[in-house]
């Protein structure tokens, strides 16, 4: 839907101030001012942002309230009603998740001769991976893994696990080469060099892209590769619990058929958890850019099995989620817009933040403008500020339009021309900074259990830089798949058990309405087939 007449005065102010703003030079915040802004306005710093985890390996540590509810809830599985022997499947490596990390892990494990079974909640590729618009890697002539390392550590407020950052940035160039071998055609200039973009917090241009459908293109070639290698994929089979043997080693998982609610028992010598994040928990009531299945299941079942967590009180809110049109509410407006020169403008037509600050600072600044009454309000009461995308056209003479082709097409469906009109934006829940603690091979604290992608934590610290998510996904997906295949050659799983679930249920909140893992967002009454099968 095009902008309604009530928006026209604010739109006129944006247009009227554009020439003046293009002459301005916005300076980045100094470290002290940035920290003050975060403390005042970032959602992680709200008094009610987190509460202690009540029990388990990280008992007493702060965690997002919405996730604590799931960590403390009873399991949706009643162990007394589950028959584990014989298993329905017996494989070397079980991969839980069908996004970029899961697909990469499955391909690498299979290439090493392992019998691999990828299982995914929805369809193969239904993930946050396909929404990503760029991937960082130090391939430029003036760039290096060392510079990438320093930028990533600084962006994470120096809380990152250094060994994980080192592994990620060193693998970056080889990940680009791997995808080119698989058939991805990254954007290149006429002379054959990569067209490199940037993002908030970077000192070099290092984001690689395929127009603005980068993650989708990567997932396309990964899916084709899985099909070509005849690797079977269980779709619509989310994991509802991990299985442990009598020694406490992960020995597979219980999968649930989404249509029938029936359980499927998978025994595995190694298990890779690549189930994504928790955007659909809508922390603090924020909208989300995440796909429909991002309900934090991987963290829940991993923690229940004994895996250590870290940084679970840290959530990333992307600064520019769509406010209007309402059909796109919460949808991500790529950071590339600001990298290409778009201004963030309040209701008075003024810029208020250096647009290429790190994401947490820009999100806090937008929230602050709206709380001060300097935002634009929609007819339904939602607030936001303008992202003045016509500036991109003015700066590039139209040359950058192909780099935002997909986004332009989406807005055009609703009568908005982003080259002539700005976009109304507000922060949207985007990324789970924390997750399961892993080492450089993706190993968790539970033997036989690996984690990769957004379900794992540590590499980004308490704030992720743009483009590092895709790199993280593929670096640690590949590393976890390779190590899981090696592990599977030397291990014979013991007797499958759910004693850890029995122990958990004894400590869980008996009055909790919800049971976990959630599996699907709670936007409506749950399907009875997804509960009656699992507990009395």
- State the CATH architecture of the largest domain: 3-Layer(bba) Sandwich
CATH homologous superfamily caption of the largest domain: FAD/NAD(P)-binding domain
Number of helices: 14
Distance between the termini: 47 Å
Instruction: List low-pLDDT spans.
Output: 529-536
State the major sheet: 6 strands, mixed
Rg over alpha carbons: 23 Å
Q: How many DSSP-defined strands?
A: 18
Binned, the helix content reads 25-40%
Please tell me what the overall shape is.
globular
Oligomer: single chain
Q: What is the C-level CATH assignment of the largest domain? A: Alpha Beta
CATH topology title of the largest domain = FAD/NAD(P)-binding domain
How many domains? 2
Strand content: 15-25%
Mean pLDDT: 95
What structural class results from the helix and strand content? alpha+beta
Short description:
By secondary structure, this protein is α+β, with helices and mostly antiparallel strands. It has helices at 8-21, 31-41, 65-71, 100-111, 145-155, 162-182, 214-228, 297-304, 336-339, 359-371, 390-396, 405-412, 468-489, 499-507, and strands at 50-52, 62-64, 89-96, 116-119, 135-136, 207-208, 239-244, 250-256, 263-273, 309-310, 315-324, 343-345, 376-377, 383-388, 423-432, 435-437, 449-451, 456-457.
């Amino acid at each position: 839907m095009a902008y309604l007449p009530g928006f026209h005065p604010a739109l006129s102010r944006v247009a009227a101030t554009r020439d003046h703003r293009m002459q301005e030079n916005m300076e980045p915040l100094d470290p002290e001012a940035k920290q003050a802004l975060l403390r005042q306005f970032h959602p992680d710093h709200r008094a009610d942002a987190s509460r202690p985890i009540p029990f388990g390996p990280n008992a007493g540590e702060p965690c997002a309230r919405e996730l604590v509810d799931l960590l403390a809830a009873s399991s949706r599985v009643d162990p007394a009603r589950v028959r584990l022997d014989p298993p329905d499947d017996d494989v070397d490596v079980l991969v839980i998740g069908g996004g970029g990390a899961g697909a990469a892990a499955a391909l690498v494990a299979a290439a090493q001769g392992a019998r691999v079974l990828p299982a995914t909640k929805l369809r193969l590729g239904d993930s946050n991976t396909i929404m990503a618009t760029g991937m960082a890697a130090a391939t430029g002539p003036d760039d290096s893994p060392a510079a990438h390392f320093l930028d990533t550590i600084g962006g994470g407020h120096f809380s990152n696990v250094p060994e994980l950052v080192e592994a990620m940035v060193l693998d970056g160039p080889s990940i680009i080469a791997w995808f080119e071998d698989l058939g991805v055609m990254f954007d290149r200039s006429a002379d054959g060099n990569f067209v490199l973009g940037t993002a908030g917090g970077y000192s070099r241009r290092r984001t690689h892209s395929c127009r603005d459908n980068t993650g989708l293109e990567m997932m396309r070639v990964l899916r084709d590769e899985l099909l070509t290698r005849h690797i079977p994929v269980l779709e619509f089979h989310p994991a509802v619990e991990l299985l442990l043997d009598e020694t406490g080693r992960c020995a597979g998982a219980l999968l649930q058929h989404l249509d029938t609610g029936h359980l499927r028992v998978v025994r595995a010598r190694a298990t890779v958890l690549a189930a994504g994040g928790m955007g659909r928990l809508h922390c603090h009531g924020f909208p989300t850019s995440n796909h429909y299945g991002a309900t934090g299941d991987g963290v829940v079942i991993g923690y229940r099995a004994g895996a250590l967590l870290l940084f679970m009180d840290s959530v990333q809110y992307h600064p520019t989620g769509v406010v209007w049109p309402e059909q796109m509410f919460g949808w991500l407006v790529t950071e590339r817009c600001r990298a290409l020169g778009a201004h963030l403008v309040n209701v008075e037509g003024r810029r208020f933040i250096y647009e290429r600050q790190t994401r947490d600072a820009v999100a806090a600044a937008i929230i602050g403008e709206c709380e001060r009454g300097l935002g634009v309000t929609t007819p339904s009461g939602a607030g936001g500020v303008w992202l003045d995308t016509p500036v991109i056209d003015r700066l590039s003479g139209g040359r950058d339009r192909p780099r935002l082709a997909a986004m332009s097409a989406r807005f055009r469906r609703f009568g908005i021309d982003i080259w002539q009109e700005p976009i109304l934006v507000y922060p949207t829940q985007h990324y789970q900074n924390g997750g399961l603690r892993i080492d450089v091979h993706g190993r968790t604290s539970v033997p036989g259990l690996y984690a990769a992608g957004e379900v794992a934590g540590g590499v980004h610290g308490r704030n992720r830089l743009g483009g590092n998510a895709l790199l993280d996904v593929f670096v640690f997906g590949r590393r976890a798949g390779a190590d899981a295949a090696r592990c599977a050659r030397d291990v014979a799983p013991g007797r499958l058990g759910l004693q850890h679930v029995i122990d958990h249920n004894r400590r869980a909140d008996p009055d909790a309405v919800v049971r976990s893992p959630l599996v699907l967002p709670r936007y409506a009454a749950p399907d009875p087939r997804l509960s009656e099968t699992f507990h009395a």
